[in-house]
Design brief:
The chain is α+β, with helices and mostly antiparallel strands. It contains 21 helices and ten strands. It folds into three domains: 19-191, no CATH class; 204-357, no CATH class; 374-525, Nucleotidyltransferase, domain 5 (2-Layer Sandwich), CATH 3.30.420. Strands 9-8-5-6-7-10 form a six-stranded mixed beta sheet. Strands 1-4 form a two-stranded antiparallel sheet. The N and C termini lie far apart (66 Å).
């Protein structure tokens, strides 16, 4: 028997559901995977067949259903809306992106330019806004043709030094890689677009739904709490409503109807249990309310610990009620209260025990490279609104001597990962200029380190990663590894120097006074 509708259970946990998969949306996501393969693998035989028949003069995003389509193409065609909503252009050299028609801005509303049309030519492409000599945006042109907020957005789009080709990226995750999981969350709003909002999505209860799954209680108690809040418990009243030939009377107090709130809170046989809760933030038994409203009131007036007490106690009460109904056993009120307290304490003690058993990873600091190998440490520094990001690079040899360093201000206000990616690219380029053959690059950004090691160039800053990967091909050997921020202090100092001074500097063959003290401290630790 279904106590909660499947549609409600398919909603996210923050909206009062259980995050079960909507099968229609999941099917669209699976079909979208085939559409993505067609779009990203144009040389496959099946792709060439589809293209010749259904979209001979464009790409799959502009394809038509056509006359007498095959069942496979009809299915794939139905999933194209998922692809259209889940992709946008990533700017490389801008030669394939139309300024006003294509999605290329990191703006999650439309991803398109909304500034009024300007006379920049018959078919204006983004490449008109890029200076190929400096590899930077044409600042004056951008500010002249676009609204101020949009001009700022465009100028903060990162451009790689090698100006690689434009590419389409997936918006469902940070890596820019299509997955069925991420496509599902793009397809879900499309499927549910016509469905009316349910009470579980109300603002007053959203905080409760989020908090329920974060409570320090066993999973069975949290699931019970969700069922109680959704009125999904098999009480006598709910059984009668579903057509079962049973009475609706409470098995503990036969003069009342057994609803969820009655069975858990307001039954006269439970008063002694709730009297043990001396520090309850509200007058629990004063007014008869539905259970979910009572939980919201306790959360508003008290703390998450009070909510844990409510749910643990009601779980113990429901456990006792089932014993009465199915086994004719009744526990004393003190035992019900103690069961609730022990459930809470045992779970918290188990969490503490597991944390104590976890072994910490060894704390590895900065180490000098082997002979004939040079170590490049990089770091980025983000900036506030209206300011520009900065980065620092230092190259050291096997004697821990700094042979080169860079303190540079970037051309835009980028996020932390993009800034780190630019710092890595700058460090590798500097090593190439100095004709170093074997290098080790260290950064405190795991995201950038993993992207370079995996040659993952699909994210929003994938063009910068691609530039670094291409530069690394010029070296005899290279290694990219992560270093904790505490041991990356020299590069951090250089990045902060550029941030505070607002100017870029580069040194070769000398030890800078600004980092000499930090270098000495690092050598003392090694």
């Amino acid at each position: 028997m279904a106590w909660v509708s499947w549609r409600k259970m398919c909603k996210s946990k923050s909206d009062g559901g259980m995050s079960f998969r909507n099968l229609q949306a999941f099917n669209l996501a699976m079909l979208a995977k085939q559409a993505w393969r067609i779009m990203t693998n144009p040389n496959l035989l099946i792709v060439r067949i589809y293209k010749a028949k259904y979209f001979p003069f464009g790409n799959i995003l502009g394809a038509k259903l056509g006359s007498s389509p095959s069942y496979a193409w009809r299915s794939i065609y139905n999933s194209l809306e998922v692809i259209r909503k889940g992709v946008r252009w990533r700017v490389g050299n801008g030669k394939m992106i139309h300024i006003w028609e294509d999605k290329c801005l990191p703006n999650p509303t439309t991803y398109k330019v909304c500034s009024p049309l300007q006379d920049i030519g018959d078919f204006p492409m983004v490449s008109l806004l890029i200076d190929e000599e400096t590899r930077h945006w044409k600042v004056e042109m951008v500010k002249r043709f676009f609204l101020p907020f949009e001009a700022e957005t465009i100028l903060n789009i990162p451009l790689s030094y090698n100006l690689s080709e434009d590419s389409i990226i997936w918006l469902g995750n940070k890596r820019g890689v299509f997955t069925v999981r991420s496509a599902y969350f793009v397809a879900l709003p499309i499927v549910e677009n016509s469905e009316e909002d349910e009470c579980s999505s109300g603002d007053s209860r959203t905080r409760l739904w989020k908090k329920v799954w974060q409570l320090k209680l066993p999973a069975k108690v949290r699931i019970f709490a969700w069922k109680a809040c959704m009125d999904g418990l098999p009480t006598k009243l709910n059984l009668a409503k579903r057509g079962l030939n049973v009475g609706a009377e409470c098995p503990l107090f036969e003069k009342a109807v057994e609803s969820s709130s009655h069975a858990l809170i307001y039954c006269n046989k439970l008063c002694e249990v709730w009297w043990n809760w001396q520090d309850c933030p509200i007058n629990l038994l004063a007014v008869n309310r539905c259970f979910v409203d009572l939980a919201v009131e306790i959360l508003d007036a008290g703390s998450p610990n009070d909510l844990e007490t409510l749910f643990a106690t009601t779980w113990a009460i429901w456990f006792n009620r089932n014993q009465v109904v199915h086994e004719s056993k009744r526990s004393p009120h003190s035992q019900i209260w103690n069961l609730a307290r022990c459930t809470q304490e045992d779970y918290k003690n188990a969490i503490l025990f597991c944390r104590a058993q976890q072994q910490q990873a060894p704390d590895i600091g900065w180490a000098a490279p082997p002979p004939d190998v040079y170590k490049i440490n990089v770091d980025g520094a983000t900036a506030g609104i209206g300011c520009r990001s900065s980065m620092g690079v230092v190259i050291q040899d096997c004697w821990r001597m700094a042979i080169a360093a860079v303190s540079k201000v970037l051309n835009g206000n980028y996020g932390a990962a993009v800034t780190e990616a630019f710092a890595v690219e700058e460090g590798i380029r500097l090593a190439k200029e100095m004709e170093l053959q074997r290098i080790i690059v260290e950064s405190d950004s795991c995201e950038v380190v993993d992207a370079i090691n995996e040659s993952s160039c699909n994210g929003e800053f994938g063009m910068v990663i691609q530039g670094s990967v291409e530069l690394l091909r010029f070296f005899q050997s290279w290694k990219m590894q992560h270093l904790k921020r505490d041991y990356n202090r020299v590069a951090h100092k250089l990045a902060q120097l550029a941030k505070s001074s607002g100017s870029s500097q580069q040194w070769k063959g000398i030890v800078l006074p600004v980092i000499q003290h930090v270098l000495l401290l690092d050598r003392a630790k090694c």
